[in-house]
Amino acid sequence: MINIEPTRKMIEVRNSINNLAKGVLRPIARKYDVNEHEYPKELEMFRSIKIMGGKKKKKEGDDAPKSDKPAPKKLGTNLSTVISIEEMCWGDAGLLLSLPNAGLGNAAIAAVATDEQMERFGNKWAAMAITEPGSGSDSGSITATARLEGDEWVLNGEKIFVTCADRCDVVVVWATVDKKAGKSGIKSFVVEKDRPGFKLEKLEHKLGIRASDTGTFVLSDCRIPRSNLLGSEEVKTATEGFKGVMKTFDNTRPLVASMALGITRASLDFTREKMEESGITLDYEKNLNNVSSLEKDFYLMEANLEAMRLLTWRAAWMADNGEFNNLEASMSKAKAGRWGTLITQKCCDLLGPLGYTQDHLAEKWMRDSKIMDIFEGTGQIQHLIVARNVLDFSSKQLK
User: Fold this and answer.
1) What is the tally of helices (H) and strands (E) in the chain?
2) Please, which residues have CB within 8 angstroms of residue 9's CB and are 6 or more apart in sequence?
3) How confident is the model at residue 254 (pLDDT cuts 50, 70, 90)?
4) pLDDT per residue as tens digits for the range 28-44
5) DSSP labels, 73-109
6) 219 phi and psi, to 5 degrees?
7) Whole-prediction pTM value?
């Protein structure tokens, strides 16, 4: 049985983070939207906070015999995280992505790293480098290579659209160790920024989330220690190795969905505020056939926002309880990415001039929301994953 009713503790955390977002992030949102690539020094206060949780070490007694009774289902770290991220992105999504030590690479490390690697890299700010000029949503087609020479891996390739490229300490780079093995040959490697042959080529100028820096890396015979390969070196069955790497996405896609939630809610809150200021009162007792088109649009947007939230919470709850959530993670990302874009755009339509001017943040939320339907796998890719899961088709059977 699924239980996604927030606990009292979660509600307290949500309220405190909302206050933080309102007091710290929202006031500087426009500043760093305009001053792209300038590091938000105000975020240094978050350096000690860990957003992307790591693996928990075993406590003494964990190996004791377990009871025959099934453990009660729980509300855990993943659900708490998506709730927190929604509140932070209600403040500003670009600034959330700029929080020190909370890069997407940290989620990748947490997903597949050994205990020893967690000790070395768990507290570093880690970006994640997957996308290449000729390889976008199809992560299995990456061309970056890694060859083993003695006790070092030698990496070559180019990675684009890397979040936190300039500000991170290390980068989790996806590369193939055996092209003949296909997807099973793809592994993830931790590369320190100061490694010879590892160059930050450029920073992008973007439509949205401009507070977050995004860059291109070139690897030219970049040498890293053999122990920097995350997880096992062994190339297993046709898809086994790749599954280990792709597990990262099952963790991060609900996080992206919760980011879309925060932006969308901010846009709806502002739209409601301006509607009420103009004398429009939303009455949920009214017959839907007897309301204005503006009210009907708003109710539809609210309903889809709630659907986005429930799908996201479900995926996070399943992760907390050790349940395979590949389908649910993609459902939450597909729904939130698509409808976040539609809702923020519709809010700008309803707001008229207020949705077009930079005097308010509505136009910024519309720009910021677009990336949520693109990164961590486009909406089209998410629909493919959902269809394959529902129809029980392989990637070869349904492309």
Assistant:
1) 11, 7
2) none
3) very high
4) 999 999 999 999 999 99
5) P---HHHHHHHHHHHHHHH-HHHHTTSTT--HHHHHH
6) -110, 120
7) 0.90
CB 269 within 8 A of CB 262: no
Planar angle of CA 253, 259, 260, nearest 5 degrees: 95
Q: Helical H runs in the chain?
A: 8-20, 26-34, 77-91, 93-96, 104-112, 115-121, 240-277, 293-320, 326-351, 362-370, 379-391
pLDDT single digits (tens) 343-367: 999 999 999 999 999 999 999 999 9
Structure token digits, residue 68: 């025959």
The Cα angle at residue 376 between residues 370 and 378, in degrees rounded to 5: 60
Contact, 88 vs 13, CB < 8 A?
no
Strands 126-129 and 170-176 come out as parallel
Sign of CA dihedral 79, 81, 85, 87: positive
Contact status, residue 315 vs residue 326, Cβ threshold 8 Å = no
From 45, 182, 140, 43, select the one nearest 99 (Cα to Cα): 43
